[in-house]
Design brief:
By secondary structure, the chain is an alpha+beta fold. The chain has a six-stranded antiparallel β-sheet. It has a five-stranded antiparallel β-sheet with strand order 13-12-18-17-16. Helix 5 runs antiparallel to helix 13 and helix 11 crosses helix 12. The relative contact order is 0.10.
């Protein structure tokens, strides 16, 4: 289907502009509200014949055209009846003009792809004499009603705006919080236009620190968060408030590299911290809006977790970096077999070489002498020395890593970053920073002096442990057989890295993980369903590290 229909709202009175290919030059409002088209809410049909099967091309064109026309006409009742959820759709559609104060709009459908119809919206928002143009794109999907058999718009809030979620609403008015001008460590201004991944972070900083920074309110269009503790998302600024200056620890150069690096993959994220201070230097996601995996993710980190496992092995006297360890193709724990990738084995392995080749079995067999302590040893190590467990007060919302006590085969799985272990790139970047610095310093993005919040703390790694971890990471990124060597080839000499691949239920391809350091910068990346850590996530981390000191 190809559509040339444009529906417009003019001066608060909705009208229709018709033309182009596909629909023909006729009044697209014909039939709106007719019993054969309206009443689309998925209630039981009165006809004895109810259509079944996929919606047809003609039904998709007809339903989408009439829905968009009714929406543009300002008839939220008729538009909602063309959806499969009138109760939710009607107030949301009415709020487009009543709460969001849209006074003019042109909605232009594009060619359908299957049952999905994309469209662009060019609108004008007016509030108390302030007026601003607003453009965006969204899409709808036409489905068959389960009981009526009619072709209906599958109602989602994103039909109105792509960033609108369940329980959220659009509003235009005087902003709830004062404006801010967030700056990086050198005073460079950070904007969501230049650094798209920072959009959500800047909204959070504004809500939390706008008043403290001395800013004033403006007139804006925003999304009211469904979460009482969440930050509203600004979509359009009609009148700028005077911004208050908020200092951050971000580095504009490193952030720019992170933004570029994550765009290599559809679903990827990266975070970078400074080991000597805990300062967050960059945090980026692709997609840039929506769920921010870099700081909110909670998934298995795969073999990157062997950094903590290695520290646990060394501190419990089971081995050190140069100690010989066994690396057979597989090992059994309480009757459950664990394998190396493609069942490889390593004769004459040491803990250093096993770490560099990411030998799973070498990080399981040495732990057996711990006996009953094995179920809690990794959790204790992560909490006491790596700051995983205590609550982080970074200045923005973060989901902190989890290394819970386990039992049975889950204990073994946790040693290689599976089981109940949950991490995100910010957590893993911090773990690497702790390993190379020798002391956990809680990641943060704004100075503690802004609100006197309490930072999480942990004990320093015992003498010699950090040096061994740094050596193992360096070897993994420089030895000819190291799994991180190829990815880190373009990074300077003072470097180290660790790969990881994590199997996720329901995913045909494992998640790709990589963490590394160069000089005084540590970074970690996750590429969802990216496969081997060195192939996908590795180049993301390397690009970020090259932008650092």
């Amino acid at each position: 289907m190809r559509s040339g229909v444009k529906v417009a709202v003019i001066g608060g009175v909705f009208a229709v502009v018709v033309g182009g290919v596909g629909y023909g030059a006729y009044n697209v409002l014909d039939g709106l509200g007719d019993s054969g088209v309206g009443g689309g809410t998925d209630t039981k049909a009165t006809s004895s014949e109810v259509k079944t099967g996929p919606v047809t091309k003609d039904e998709i064109a007809d339903t989408s055209k009439k829905f968009l026309a009714a929406w543009a006409k300002g008839d939220s009742l008729v538009a909602s009846e063309l959806t499969n959820n009138k109760g939710d759709a009607e107030p949301a559609l009415a709020g487009y003009s009543e709460s969001a104060h849209v006074t003019k709009a042109v909605i232009t459908p594009g060619p359908a792809t299957g049952s999905k119809v994309p469209y662009t919206v060019k609108a004008t928002v007016s509030y108390k004499g302030a007026t601003k143009s607003w453009s965006y794109a969204s899409e709808l999907t036409v489905v068959r009603g389960l009981t009526t058999g009619k072709a209906l718009v599958d109602w989602l809030p994103s039909v109105i705006h792509p960033d609108l979620g369940r329980g959220e609403s659009l509003e235009t008015g005087e902003s709830k919080t004062a404006s801010i001008e967030a700056v990086d460590r050198s005073g460079k201004v950070l904007t969501k236009d230049k650094y798209p991944s920072l959009g959500g972070i800047l909204d959070e900083l504004r809500k939390k620190y706008g008043q403290k920074a001395g800013g004033t309110i403006g007139v804006e269009t925003w999304i009211n968060s469904a979460n009482a503790d969440g930050a509203d998302k600004t979509l359009l600024t009609l009148v700028k408030g005077k911004p208050g200056r908020v200092p951050t620890t971000l580095d504009a150069g490193v952030q720019a590299a992170a933004e570029k690096a994550v765009k290599k993959y559809d679903k990827s994220s990266v975070a970078a911290v400074e080991p000597s201070s805990g300062a967050i230097r960059a945090i980026a996601n692709n997609p840039a809006s929506g769920f921010e995996t870099a700081r909110w993710g909670a998934v298995a980190p795969g073999s990157t977790m062997k950094i903590v496992t290695a520290a646990m092995i060394i501190q419990n006297g089971l081995a050190n970096a140069g100690s010989p360890v066994e690396c057979p193709p597989s090992v059994t724990w309480l009757g459950v077999p664990f394998h190396n990738l493609e069942n490889f084995s390593m004769p004459n392995a040491t803990l250093r070489t096993a770490f560099a080749r990411s030998c799973n079995t070498a990080f399981i067999k040495p732990v057996k002498p711990l006996g009953d302590k094995a179920d809690t040893a990794l959790s204790d190590e992560a909490s006491k020395y790596f700051g995983i467990g205590p609550v982080w007060e970074a200045g923005i919302k973060t989901v902190d890593g989890k290394v819970p006590p386990s039992e049975g085969a889950e204990t073994t799985a946790s040693y290689i970053g599976q089981g109940k272990i949950q991490m995100n790139p910010l957590n893993m970047a911090s773990i690497t920073a702790t390993a190379v610095h020798g002391q956990f310093l809680q990641p943060y993005i704004v100075p503690r002096s802004l609100d006197n919040r309490t930072f999480a703390t942990a004990s320093p790694l015992p003498g010699g442990v950090s040096a061994q971890l740094r050596d193992m990471l360096h070897y993994t990124a420089t030895w000819s057989q190291g799994t991180a060597t190829a990815a880190m080839a373009g990074v300077g000499e003072n470097k180290g890295g660790k790969t990881g691949s994590a199997e996720i239920d329901g995913h045909a391809t494992s998640d790709s993980w990589f963490t590394g350091f160069s000089n005084d910068l540590a970074a970690a990346a996750l590429v969802q369903s990216g496969g081997h850590g060195g192939t996908a996530a590795g180049p993301v981390v390397a690009e970020v590290l090259r932008a650092g000191p």
